[in-house]
Amino acid sequence: MIAAPLFIISVPELVIAQCKAGIVGSFPALNAREAQGEPPLLDAWLTQISEELDRHNQANPDTPAAPFAVNQIVHRSNTRLDRDLEICVKHKVPLWITSLGARVDVNEAAHSCGGIVLHDIINNTFARKAIAKGADGLVAVAAGAGGHAGQQSPFALIREIRDWFDGPLALSGAIATGEALLAARALGADFGYVGSPFIATDEANAMQDYKDMIVQSGAEDIVYSSLFTGVWGNYLRGSVENAGMDPDNLPEADAKAMNFGSGSSKPKAWKTIWGSGQGIGAVRSQGPAARIVDRMAREYADAGARLAKEFGG
Predict the structure, then answer these.
(1) Taking CA atoms, which of 63, 118, 202, 292 is between 20 and 30 Å from 4?
(2) The predicted structure's pLDDT at residue 134
(3) 3-class secondary structure for 209-267?
(4) Where do the structural domains in the chain lie, given as residue ranges?
């Protein structure tokens, strides 16, 4: 399992908890935003994560933490990208997740420090472009994923990619249970990419109202819209209604509206519009991140055992 990088929500405390629980923890580099004139917060975050995981590994040699990942938004409006790449190279970040544009120089930066690059894609065309530009693997963002999501069925998307690509492949899209994780593996993915369930965790940097809405909502409460960032994505219906808008009659926005110059993927006017994937019906309460991992691990094992029994394995 790979924990998806969640805008604003994924902070060192959550990443560390995820890694200690045995899954890849991640965060967007743009989440580390310092005040003007202060040292780069990203540098401090990477130091904190690396040192804490190193202490954990020394104390628990038989159950070491999983590696962590940093998400880089490879978009022309991200004016911090070059600086953040240098910091990640300095810290020898083991896993890089790139989004919204595949670039050779970004992949080369990751490879220069021994890093592995997984690139977000929503269709087979983008997948081919990412690998051609030097990405090591892919994150297939299928229908039902939180945040910027594609529209293709995971059954179609994974099959098309596996026709030509045998490298690392993660699947994103409503993977919130161990059964869904096992299904992703059965489809041909190596990893399940899990985001929304971690919003309602103690370590997540999310407003309490946001966490409560995740617990109280289900797949029918997700709205697919391009209005808030210029790119199509999934959002909580309740947050759209609370902003005074009709979720069923939202205008569209052009992709040119996306701007990462301020370190944010959304204009301030939409800061209370909350992203979420369709799998949140499996989230029944708030708790520590490790509890999400433990639940999904049990469900994964139980589902595998049921299938093995059914097929005589």
Answers:
(1) 63
(2) 97
(3) HHHHHHHHCCHHHEEEECCCCCCCEEEEHHHHHHCCCCCCCCCCCCHHHCCCCCCCCCC
(4) 2-208+277-310
Closest CA to 200 of 309, 102, 283, 313: 283
Chain segment 35-49, per-residue pLDDT in tens = 988 999 999 999 999
Decide if 234 contacts 275 (C-beta within 8 A).
Answer: yes
Q: Is 194 helix (H, G, I), strand (E, B) or coil?
A: strand
Residues in the chain predicted with pLDDT less than 70, given as ranges, are 255-270, 313
Q: Which residue shows structure tokens 């993915």? A: 189
What gap in Å lies between CA 186 and CA 183, rounded to an integer?
5
Q: Which CATH number fits domain 2-208+277-310: 3.40.50.150, 3.20.20.70, 2.30.30.140, 3.20.20.80?
A: 3.20.20.70
d(CA 240, CA 70): 29
Chain-centre distance for alpha carbon 291: 18
Which of 217, 222, 272, 268 lies closest to 242, judged by CA? 272
| pLDDT value of residue 268 | 57
- Give dist(CA 217, CA 213) in Å, integer: 6
Is the pTM value of this prediction over 0.90?
Answer: yes
